[in-house]
């Protein structure tokens, strides 16, 4: 759940916008889902019109106007709470509970032990990018004339959002959105550029696929360039032969400007130091990598031609499918608390699906969804000091083969067998999450397998029946777990508040004035 905060001076303008048609008529059925008891007593969940919007704005502004309190930078506090489009929709009742808990924790209500401030939560359908969300409008002037403190309100909102994600079974995002989530407005910005999805998502899959399929850094650079993406090195200060990082961008249309992302901002495990732990570190490999980085920076042709330019031997399909099968067997003995190993396996398996998606999906499809879902398990808060390298069975060979798959067609029997083995590994990751009582992640992987990869399996040819043990492993459906829901609850009195000036006032640092519009 992503909170996005703005401040301003025009409460009537904000409420009129939230209750109106929106910039592109994207607002549908604007209505209240929660708010201060005195406001909810007079307004139900009927669709808001101009008169109702004006009355609500006047009530939100009443404490400031009656008591004559002014706040530098504006007294209007506006926060949107949005879900990723892939998470689906919540009910009005659940949004009401989330909004009430959020405002309790942010200190706007009586739960803070101080006089409450007036607020409402408005829902008006999806954003243009398909995100379910609500908007909270609040006065920063409390009913007794004291001021609500906006100091560090954005990190406070992030922390509260993380806690509510756990409480309500929502997808848990990184506090900085640098690991899995998108920054506020990023999805809408990519839609305006005509991209089928945010560039951060497509670039993450391309980089992950190329990193897993490559046997060294030079090959990694060449593979990224073959996907059509732009890549440039970040040199050490004062050097042009020591690369310490990289950035990638999708190639923009003619006349457009590329949007660059650092590797670590795509995902924590895609930072260059993390990627280098998977490749052999030799003087020759380092020299070849620098030459390829310099060629990429200048837009020149690759210095050498490697494995990426040739079709792999078809006979390797069976070899690498068997290797993935052995990987699944080895996972039976991996402890649940060995997070580094599970993250490593999820990363390689995600890379295999990302390679397949990059090769065969012109727009994000089921394979892309599988890569994105498994990549979540690949993220760790802390990575081991001694990195894990693939010394036994691995999914890296599967990435190499799937990256050479062709666009279109019904696929091959070899791909169907490979999919079966990758599904077994995905199920092992699911079982690990379930046994660790991480039911939210288990539920997400289950949904991905049953609703995304089932489409891929249906499009592939039938294959001979596998051995009984493997057959039961592949045939067992990944079960879903339903998240409990809490009932709505009333809070506080429904009587209009009595506005009385407090004897003492507290001051807060003023924030910059920003438009009271949906971000």
Automatic annotation (TrEMBL):
Species for this entry: Pseudarthrobacter enclensis
Name of the protein: MobA/VirD2-like nuclease domain-containing protein
Biased composition (Polar residues): 479-488
InterPro entries: Endonuclease_MobA/VirD2
Span of domain MobA/VirD2-like nuclease: 73-170
Chain spans, region Disordered: 168-205, 461-519
Low complexity bias spans: 461-477
Annotated Basic and acidic residues bias: 183-205
